[in-house]
UniProtKB/TrEMBL annotation:
Belongs to the L6 tetraspanin family. InterPro entries: L6_membrane. Its main location: membrane. Keywords: Membrane, Transmembrane, Transmembrane helix. One of its GO terms (cellular component) is membrane. Pfam families: L6_membrane. It comes from Carassius auratus. This is Transmembrane 4 L6 family member 4-like. Coiled coil: none annotated. It is found in: Membrane. The chain crosses the membrane at residues 12-33, 45-66, 86-107, 156-180. The keyword Endoplasmic reticulum does not apply. It is a multi-pass membrane protein.
């Protein structure tokens, strides 16, 4: 497969992943599917790992990868393929930027999953609810009976874990795809697009 075609496949894959990440991060602003005050939302949601890191910052590399196959900047310095080689080198830089954004999203997701969600907990006297972090060290992940501490909003723990887990998985996949493009870009920079540029390789 041509390095340009391979990059296009990566770009096609990255676009829906970026959209999924943006949607997941947006949904996290509605804990348990409920409209809430900003003070009731888990802090890591405001770090925008899914919107900025795995979302917006990933859109740019994806668009660059999609355009590599149709890149027609040929004939520089008397070499028909050097324009394609330069474009492939540029894609390495965009892939690195995308990997950094996805890594940021993965780190935020890991911290959020370990930290747990903000939720309402009943006072010992049973008369009022406080919004707090009842799970400080991630122990709730292996002890589901602790989930009864949370009284909302909605099914907040499942909501929190599901969305941040999706962000984590998507971020890891994005890092892998960007790493593939770094390798593909190096090959394209050194060897040129195997399909050639302007009829030559």
């Amino acid at each position: 497969m041509c390095s340009g075609n391979f990059a296009k496949c990566l770009g096609i894959t990255l676009i829906p992943l970026a959209i999924i990440c943006i949607l997941c991060n947006t949904l996290l602003f509605f804990p348990g599917g409920k409209v809430a005050e900003s003070s009731d939302i888990t802090d890591e949601v405001f770090y925008l790992g899914g919107i900025l890191g795995s979302g917006v910052l990933m859109i740019f590399p994806a668009l660059v990868f999609l355009g590599l196959k149709n890149n027609d900047c040929c004939g520089c310095c008397g070499n028909e393929s050097c324009g394609k080689r330069f474009a492939m080198f540029g894609s390495i830089l965009f892939a690195a930027a995308g990997a950094v954004g996805a890594t940021y999203s993965v780190i935020v997701s890991c911290v959020a999953i370990n930290h747990g969600p903000k939720c309402f907990t009943t006072h010992l006297n049973g008369t009022s609810l406080n919004i707090t972090y009842p799970f400080a060290d991630g122990n709730y992940l292996s002890n589901r009976t602790m989930w009864d501490i949370c009284d909302g909003p909605g099914d907040i723990i499942t909501w929190h874990l599901t969305l941040f887990s999706i962000l984590l998985i998507c971020g890891l996949v994005q890092i892998g795809l960007c790493a593939f493009q770094v390798i593909n870009g190096l090959i394209g920079t050194i060897c040129g697009d195997c399909c050639g540029c302007c009829g030559s390789s």
